[in-house]
Design goal:
This protein is mainly α. It is built from five helices and no strands. The two termini are about 20 Å apart.
Length: about 90
């Protein structure tokens, strides 16, 4: 967002990225990461969940897919059907 698009423009681009069909997965991942990085409340909550999992010894280094699937906010952030990001 600091490099050319404002939030409204980013929000408008997301459906285009998803529907366009050219490298859709990479586009969705990029848009999701951009959203997390530029939305402090989402970033903070996700970081807190990751920190809690590390401190509890629930994740290894590097984290496995099975371990990541146990992080509910992470799953909601990347898989909207699994939950909602709040």
């Amino acid at each position: 967002m600091r490099h050319g698009l404002n939030k409204v423009q980013c929000d408008a681009e997301l459906p285009v990225i998803v529907i366009a069909g050219s490298d859709t997965s990479a586009g969705v991942i990029k848009a999701t990461i951009l959203y997390v990085m530029t939305t402090p409340r989402v970033y903070s909550r996700l970081q807190a969940e990751i920190d809690e999992a590390i401190n509890a010894g629930n994740v290894s280094t590097p984290i496995t897919l099975a371990e990541a699937k146990q992080l509910s906010y992470l799953q909601a952030s990347y898989c909207p059907k699994a939950g909602s990001v709040q």
